[in-house]
Amino acid sequence: MSISSLKRPVAAAVAGIFLLSACATNPDGSYKMDDRATGALIGAAAGCAVGAAAKGAQGCAVGAAVGAAAGFLIGWYFESKKVADAKQVNNEYEQQSKLKGKAKGEPVPKNEVVPAKFESKVTTAAPDQSGQKEIQVTSNTDLVGYGDKVPELQQKYAIYDEKNNLVEEKTEKLAAVDGAGRYETSSKFKLPAEAKGKKYTVKTTLVSNNKTYKENTYKVTELDGQRLILAAL
After folding, report:
1. What tens digit of pLDDT does each residue of 186-209 get?
2. Which structural domains are found in the chain, ordered by start?
3. Most Cβ neighbours (<10 Å): which of 125, 135, 140, 142?
């Protein structure tokens, strides 16, 4: 049997272990996969390919297991919403400018809308029954100005392992961006139980009209399955 013929069944079998807890039952009895299941399948296939190239069937099995675990790292959730209107946010920045002695000129742009602030906060939730720890990233973006043209905003997420290898990356478009205001994004993913004692780097970047506005970076370290150290860089 060739290496290529081994890849699919072995990778699928290993990924199946992870899929059991990542599938949901629809009302009609059918099944659907969430992002964790999809990630497990992709990771298993990739890991099998690498392992098989080196050690044949045995390498495929080991690589698939590692790849599935890595792909299963991200059970992704994302949403964005507007939490403050243009009048409130523009007024806040105008008042701040006056307090700083910058009353002359235009406190906020009159003919355009631009980002003025991008901040992220990382928090954690208690581990679930499987031992997975949920990481939550909440970001706030302030847009100021009186222009009619709204910039296209994207938020990029990247997660790196302790060797600085990219584990997962996502790019999400902010919804409901209709002008100046304050926009909040919420995203979350789960670290598997195997992540205990390992360090991860979480980066979140705001991109406005295809140009990077600001990047926030955090180090995430799990100590004992109950506590996580979060450090902003």
Report:
1. 998 877 666 667 788 889 999 999
2. 3-71 (no CATH), 77-232 (2.60.40.10)
3. 135
Q: Is 37 helix (H, G, I), strand (E, B) or coil?
A: helix
Q: What is the residue-wise DSSP string for 140-189?
A: EEEEEE--SPPPPEEEEEEEE-TT--EEEEEEEEPPS--SSEEEEEEEEE
Residue 193: what pLDDT?
A: 64
Q: What does the DSSP 8-state code read for residue 132?
A: P
Pure H helices in the chain: 3-19, 35-71, 86-99
Q: Which two tokens stand for residue 199?
A: 């360090």
- Asked whether 144 and 114 are in contact (CB, 8 A), the reply is yes
pLDDT in the model for residue 16: 47
Nearest alpha-carbon partner for 203 in 114, 120, 142, 140: 120
Residue in this structure with the two tokens 């806040």, named with its chain if needed: 92
Chain-centroid distance, C-alpha 19: 20
Whether the Cβ atoms of residue 157 and residue 187 lie closer than 8 Å to each other: yes
> Which is it for the CA torsion 182, 137, 165, 190, positive or negative?
negative
